[in-house]
From TrEMBL:
InterPro entries: HMG_box_dom, HMG_box_dom_sf. The gene is LOC108853097. This is High mobility group B protein 7. It comes from the Eukaryota. Residues 61-129 bind DNA. GO terms for molecular function: DNA binding. One of its GO terms (biological process) is polar nucleus fusion. Coiled coil: none annotated. Pfam families: HMG_box.
Length: 136
């Protein structure tokens, strides 16, 4: 009689147990995927994979900030010191309005700073490219 749960079907029987290699506990074969060691291994694997991805993206050099971002960094610091109880959502809007009201002379300080950072960035890219060429 070909009944359910009997015979040589591919599904494991509910009374079959295996010993977990991670913790040496008896675990039902049907529940091995839900066993804490299996989930822990998956979490560890996921964290390791994400760390590898982070280190690969960290090796790429980020472009330096623009003049506006340099200004906003300064503005954010000074504005929050002067107005500690202000809503943080308002700071970018106020900073943008102040940037728009600046004259070219007032913006020149930030443009010069951004240009200097960009020169340093380009020089570091050129040196890293020449280092890569030397390796081959």
């Amino acid at each position: 009689m070909a009944g359910r749960g009997h015979g040589g079907g591919g599904s494991p029987k509910s009374n079959e147990f295996v010993i977990c290699e991670g913790c040496n506990k008896n675990v039902a074969v049907a529940f091995i995927s839900m066993h804490s060691c299996s989930r822990l291994d998956a979490k560890i694997r996921f964290k390791l994979e994400s760390k590898v991805a982070e280190t690969q993206t960290e090796s790429k050099k980020k472009k330096p900030p623009t003049a506006f971002y340099i200004f906003m960094s300064d503005f954010r610091k000074t504005y929050q010191k002067e107005n500690p109880y202000v809503n943080l959502k308002d700071v970018p809007k106020l900073g943008g309005e102040k940037w728009k009201s600046f004259t070219s002379d007032e913006k020149q300080v930030y443009w010069d700073s951004a240009a200097q950072l960009m020169r340093g960035y380009n020089m570091s890219l050129e040196s890293s490219e020449s280092d890569e060429e030397d390796e081959y």
